[in-house]
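Hi everyone,

Forwarding the result from last night's run.
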Amino acid sequence: MSNLTSPRSRWQRGDPMAAYDRLPPDLRMWLAGAALPWSAASVHRLWRRALRETGCPKVAQDRLSAAEARTLAREAAKVWGARYPSQACGKHR
């Protein structure tokens, strides 16, 4: 597994940059600092759902951050083990 892709990633059809350019500015701003390589389609789907439920772009960004944190935690457990990062912080003997 590459460090740039998740096991769930799939090849997308079309022009990814054009899809990115069509995203709302608030969403593109959030994506600029994202830790994961989100596809425009998946992040836009989550964004629309969060906006529909909350009506607030800031809360929608917070929801995306929470979703990303959950994904990173799940992926870290698969890569480094369920006890990461607690093992990394322990004392070495």
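Residues 1 and 62 are 28 Å apart (CA to CA).

Cheers,
N.
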